[in-house]
Specification:
The chain is an alpha+beta fold. It contains 8 helices and 13 strands.
Length: 318
Amino acid sequence: MNLKVQPKLIIHGGAGSSLKSKGGMEAVRRSLYPVVEAVYSLLLSGVSATEAVVRGCQMLEDDPCFNAGTGSVLQSDGQIRMSASLMDGASQSFSGVINVSRVRNPIELVQFLQTSPDRVLSDFGAVELARELQIPSYNCLTELRLQEWIQERQDNFKRTMAGVVAEEELLETSNARRGTIGVVALDTYGRLSAGTSTGGKGFERLGRVSDSAMPAGNYATKYAAVSCTGIGEDIIDECLAPRIVLRVTDGMSLKDAMHRTFAEASENNRDFGAIALDARGAIAWGKTSEALLAAYHDGEKMSDTLEIPTGKEIGCLI
C-alpha cells in the first residue's frame, strides 16, 4: 500500500539510575528492540496508531524485565495493583484503569474502555469489567519481585519504592529506580496515540493512584502525543504530558516544547522522563533522571537513548 505518512514509533521501559555497564545496555536492548521491530511492522502494514500502541504495551507488559503486567512490583500489603491508560489523539479520547489486579494485560481493559461511556475505572470496576469480558485471571507475580518485597518487609519498608527493572544486574543499586512502560505511535494516516502501563512504585500506601492512569502521565491530541515515566507525583505536579502537548498545539515545535518543559522541571527538582511524537513525525525524549530506557524507529532504522550521558538531557529527531 502507498504510505500517506511515514510512520514513527518510540517506546520506553522506565527511567531512573544509570545503566551499570555496556552489558546492561545490551540486555535492555534485547527487551526493547523486538517490540520496536514488531510494532513498527504493524504500522507499516497500515494498522491504526492506537492498535499499534496497544500491541506494544502488551508486549512490554509481558516482559518480566519491566514494572508492568508480569513483573509488576508489590504494594506495601504484598499485593500487585496495576494502572494503565490509553489516549487516541485523533478522537482525543482518554481511557484508563486504576489499581487493577489479576489481569495479564491492563492495556486490554483500557482499550475496551475507549468506546465506553465510562472510560476510567478503579479497582472493583476494572475487575468486574475483566469478568464481563471473560478475561482469564492471571498472576503477575515473579519470584524476584516476591523476594524484593520480603526483604523490604524485613527492613520495615524503609525504601519508598521498588526497582523498575527486575533484572538487578542491569542497574546500579539505587532507591531511585522506578518506571513504567509506554508506547507512542504515528500511523500512516497521520494519527497519533499514546499508551502507558505500570505496576506502581512499589511498597506504596494502599489506594495510591499512579500518574500512568491520568492525563498527566499519558496524553495525545492530533498535534502531539506523550508518555511519561519516573516519579509519578512529580509528573502530576508538572502536569507533564499535557504541558508538552498543549505547547505543540499552540504552535511551539516539539523540540522547543520539550526544552522549555524540562528546563522548568529541572528548576523544580523533578525526577522523570518522557517520550513524544508530533504529527509531522518529529521524535523527542527528555529526562531529568540519570537514564531513560527508550528505543525508537525513525522510519529508516532503530536506535535508543541508553547511551545518552548522565544528566538533564532532551533529544529530538525531525
